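Appendix B. One record, verbatim.
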Amino acid sequence: MDNGEKLLEAYIKSNNIASHHISSFEVFLDQGIQKIIDSEGMIEPVIKPQGVNNFIIKLGKVTIGKPDVLEADGVLRQLNPMEARIRDLTYDAPMVLTVSYIADKKQIAEEQVSIGRIPVVVKSKYCNLHGLSSEELAKLSEDPDDPGGYFIINGTERIIITTEDLAPNNILVSKENQEGFVYSAKIFADAENIKVPHSIQLSSSNLLYITFGKLKKVPIFTLIKALGFTSDREIIKKIARGDDDIENTININLLAYDPGTEKEALETIGKSLHSVHPIDTASSNIDALLLPFIGKDEKSRKLKGEYLMYAISLLLSYAINKKEVDKDHYSNKRLHAENYNLDMLFRFVFKQILNDAKYNFERGIRKDRIPNPKHIFTSDQLTSRLRSSLATGQWVGGRVGITQHLNRRSFPDTVSHLRKVESLLTSNRENSRARDLHGTHFGRFCATETPEGPNIGLTKNIAVLAKISEDGIDTKDVMEKIKEYGVKSI
């Protein structure tokens, strides 16, 4: 056995080939579900109990159990993956949520409420096989070498396909195909449940416009002044940084569109939305939709302005030097596994459950009686929707093919399927550059394994020795280290 084979054998023994599926799922259950619940926070019913001024239904901690099955005779017992396969069962676990009633700031009730069941990834720490030895797995009729990383829905093994997408909250400068414009900087802003694409465009006459949310082609320096930067000298200094060509472009824009004060700039933006209260409308749009990953309140406006001026500086310098950001460089890509996809689905369905709970509470309230929390969370919508989406691959937003039936023709086929990555680009478009093998794929993707035909280059396979960084890692240590290197806060 040569050194390469020894290295490969040692790596496979110490690292699960489906670890990215397992770790991403665990992050979703450990952190993602609770974040979604906390973001919703509470339910405020319109109909309140008699004599109560303020009443809220507070959502607390969620607890997730281990996969089990309720038999016909009423016995609840542990469920193992092999039994789920043989009996065409879904390998899922119960979810229990702490629900409290708060009347005039006093807690009057608290209950542990079942909100549904969530399918569990085999071999994750929520699986009943977790931590078992090879001998124990064999006794349960499980393959000790099976990597896991998949769901069992109605007895069928299904995997969530890892997808490749452009990195969010990143400035991507490219030539603009739209008539009248020469260059653009695109930012796909993503802040949890808010996704807002931004586009800063440079026209052929050197004028700059920004588009985001409902605001279309707003002169960008009007927006910067609305963010509190009213000094032309300060704006020029921060963007141009001594470059005469960039300074000339800024001067052209300031002469063409000079909104004056911050209030006048806000009024100009509000009027473009045909609002009766232009300043309030402009303020709410800027705070909620402009670069939401920086912040969603008035305090974050300065940072948003600094970020926009940096983006303008980058756009103009690229335009002057006739350069573009390489979108196919893998630093500009991100891989989405279980955490990303389940977060999107769970968030959508959970909002519907809360609407049902609010309706059930208001319908069940009486003068002398308040419905028990267990009686308002009665819908099995979460369970059925999660099962249905994982079984069919049909996701929220009209996306399809998110899950696939796990390939079991041979062990190498299973490994290949678990490490497959699919681009979100459609296969009927040419996308020639996106299909090419890029230098940054080296060591990350297999250089030869890709299907022939329409999906060539769009479907790739993660290299055997490659690992995907985990979601949900605390960045505080990284931030402290960056500060040690001399990076200063704005």
